[in-house]
Amino acid sequence: MRITIIGSGNVATHLAAAFKNAGHRVVQVYSPNIHNAALLAYHVGADGIGSLKDINVETDIIVVAIKDDAIKEIIPSLLPYGKLVVHTSGAVGLQALTDHTANAGVFYPLQTFSKTKELNFGDVPMCIEGADETITKQLEELARTISNNVYRVNSAQRKILHLSAVFACNFTNHLYAVAEGLLKEHDMPFDMLRPLILETADKIKAHSPATVQTGPAARKDEQTMQAHLNMLEGREDLQQIYLLLSQDIIKNSNVPHGDK
Amino acid sequence: MRITIIGSGNVATHLAAAFKNAGHRVVQVYSPNIHNAALLAYHVGADGIGSLKDINVETDIIVVAIKDDAIKEIIPSLLPYGKLVVHTSGAVGLQALTDHTANAGVFYPLQTFSKTKELNFGDVPMCIEGADETITKQLEELARTISNNVYRVNSAQRKILHLSAVFACNFTNHLYAVAEGLLKEHDMPFDMLRPLILETADKIKAHSPATVQTGPAARKDEQTMQAHLNMLEGREDLQQIYLLLSQDIIKNSNVPHGDK
């Protein structure tokens, strides 16, 4: 397919590369910053443009990969071309597009992207929604050329998915940062915790996380929990996080199975 | 070395296997449940015993790998043999042993273990503390035969390490479980989140987590955070966790660097 990319951030960068690697033709990359547009365009053999008026009509789909709150503003400028328009956001409904055009869909890659970190796009769950069945099928087909994990997800589900990702990714990373801070204060390198973090994530490849919960709260080990809270004295924020998460674990824990 | 293992749980199981693989001789495995003792003993070519009175004096070190609150009780029964005694707990001080004997140390593997999941023990950080320099060196030497990550860690540091591990491992896994629950309620499989979870952990192999924080809180995106809180209406526990972690991210966030 001939694809136009709106945006030059992390999602745009990884999607453009995935499209190109799958044999599609990335026609143009747009960014209000023409330098950024040109840089990404260069990497995927496309033309960089700095104005939406320069969009080439010789394209099949316009993929909008920009900040959530900028999506609504940009859509009217894309309508004159009469092409299929999709956005790539987890938090924005399909309606943000269908309010303007029926030729619309969502093409949401459920992953955390950094420009500087390569990843295997074939594993990225692609969440697809089309304004009608024909569009949905078309997007599914396109998604399957770049990923082995393609799901049909409606707008309500996608919002839940995005919320879940905040818990599983953003909040999780913050807990890594909290741990890093505690070690630093006591002259220990974060390297000491890296194997544990990787193993914790690795475990859920084959297990439901609820069934492999471990630690003082899962064991209802009041003594250790109290000792930990005492160690956090003067750090009310961390005490609160400790208490709240421990209470939630206790509330949700079934019979411990002996893992430690 | 000739090694006696007290316990037959997850830590005992993985340590015994690591010792055997490194060419040490596991002499005996003790468990009050002789069946459990015999099973682990069988796997590592040792004898299983169900009574502490049957400990063979032909050993060099007694490794106590049992529940934290059982350590103090069991130590007196091990003293008559006059051997080096170490425990493997992150939360228990060295003093729990040195109150009884100067021939003591700590041999703490900082990892989450399941009996049913193999792992590469060479990566497991081994945290060592001896009652004196000779013992510390001896334990370091032993640790290096089974792991490439050996650290000297005193009792105060080890407690912090254990606390940090609760944040980075136990609490993290609970957040995975929260996400799993949200997806389930909306008919989506947890499989959809697995790649994101693995990538989130993978990212910190090369980065400090504080520097790669992403998500609505890191972007100070009030609109998305409010939408998420609304979606969690009726789930006060999750709303509280969402608020508290978001506030802590906002408080600790420096300039966002554009990752999404």
From TrEMBL, chains A, B:
InterPro entries: 6-PGluconate_DH-like_C_sf (IPR008927), DUF2520 (IPR018931), NAD(P)-bd_dom_sf (IPR036291), P5C_Rdtase_cat_N (IPR028939), TM1727-like_C_sf (IPR037108). Pfam families: DUF2520, F420_oxidored. Signal peptide: none annotated. Transmembrane segments: none annotated. Residues 2-88 form the Pyrroline-5-carboxylate reductase catalytic N-terminal domain. It comes from the Bacteria. SUPFAM superfamilies: 6-phosphogluconate dehydrogenase C-terminal domain-like, NAD(P)-binding Rossmann-fold domains. Residues 124-248 form the DUF2520 domain. This is DUF2520 domain-containing protein. The lineage of its organism: Bacteria, Pseudomonadati, Bacteroidota, Sphingobacteriia, Sphingobacteriales.
